[in-house]
From TrEMBL:
Gene3D superfamilies in the record: P-loop containing nucleotide triphosphate hydrolases (3.40.50.300)
One Pfam family in the UniProt entry: Sulfotransfer_4
PANTHER family named in the record: NAD DEPENDENT EPIMERASE_DEHYDRATASE, P-LOOP CONTAINING NUCLEOTIDE TRIPHOSPHATE HYDROLASE
Protein name: NAD dependent epimerase/dehydratase
InterPro entries found in the cross-reference section: P-loop_NTPase, Sulfotransfer_4
Length: 279
């Protein structure tokens, strides 16, 4: 927490201060890469507004400040209140993907009136290949300079802290190649424990291949006259994430150049004082 305070001083970015403007109705608590964006579109098509997705906090770094704070509360064993969640998702009727899924237990307690969708993929090996492909592709396209640039722009910094702490260290336990499958299995085992005893009117286990039928029956909605969304293309996901992550890179480059310029000027001044001032 003290470190976060220091970060906020060095990289000032005002966090979101939303309040609950509509009831939370649906908590989709499955892991990323389980067709969460398709599910987001499906829920939007069925009339739920707004549906929070993992792209949201990357696109608006102010959300990242909130999620980092929530993660600090969770990992330090402090309670997370409904109002704490409302500050970042108070405008939403549904949530999907990370970082929301990482707060499954806390969200279920905070919104006991909401229905729960456990979205998953049957083939864990295929799921893991998707995770590795998406993360490794994003890392390659971001390039070696990105980890340096994040230190020279407040928005990029907070997105990076969020992704490092919550996703890389938290979700993937520090290595998505080695530990993602164990994390996946543990997460769904925990969801079963959390929802044990809840009726079918409260909990739905759902995969994208199930389509509109089970989803609409569970939510009490008419089946739309269109195909169930298919938004799981790897290239589109990576492009969207990178567009968001790199949108401030030009300003970060400028700040980096300014910092280097000041450092060189400072070093030159010090060298002159030490070697020529007394002569």
């Amino acid at each position: 927490m003290a470190l976060d305070t220091l970060y906020q001083w060095v990289y000032p970015l005002k966090p979101q201060e939303r309040s609950r403007t509509k009831p939370m109705q649906v908590l989709c608590l499955g892991f990323p890469r389980t067709a969460t964006d398709s599910l987001r579109v499906a829920l939007s098509t069925l009339g739920f507004s707004y549906v929070y997705h993992g792209f949201d906090h990357i696109a608006d770094a102010r959300d990242c400040v909130n999620w980092v704070h929530l993660w600090s509360l969770k990992t330090s064993g402090q309670p997370i209140k409904r109002a704490d969640f409302d500050r970042v998702i108070g405008h939403c009727e549904a949530v999907t993907d990370a970082p929301a899924c990482m707060f499954a237990e806390e969200l279920i307690k905070a919104y006991p009136e909401a229905k729960i969708i456990i979205n998953y993929r049957e083939d864990v090996e295929a799921w893991h290949r998707s995770v590795v492909n998406s993360w490794s592709t994003a890392e390659k396209r971001a390039g070696w300079i990105h980890p340096l640039l994040v230190w020279f722009h407040a928005k990029m910094f907070w997105v990076n802290v969020n992704e490092h702490r919550l996703t890389y260290a938290g979700l993937w336990r520090g290595n998505y190649r080695k530990h993602a499958k164990a994390s996946y299995r543990d997460h769904y085992d925990r969801l079963k424990e959390l929802t044990k005893g809840m009726g079918r009117d409260r909990v739905l286990e759902f995969k994208a291949q199930d389509g509109w039928g089970p989803l609409c029956k569970f939510l009490g909605k008419e089946i739309p006259d269109e195909e169930y969304p298919n938004r799981n293309a790897l290239e589109a996901v990576v492009a969207k994430v990178l567009d968001s992550l790199m949108q401030d890179s030009a300003e970060a480059w400028r700040n980096l150049a300014l910092t280097l310029g000041l450092a060189v000027a400072g070093a030159g001044t010090l060298f002159w004082k030490l070697n020529y001032k007394s002569t």
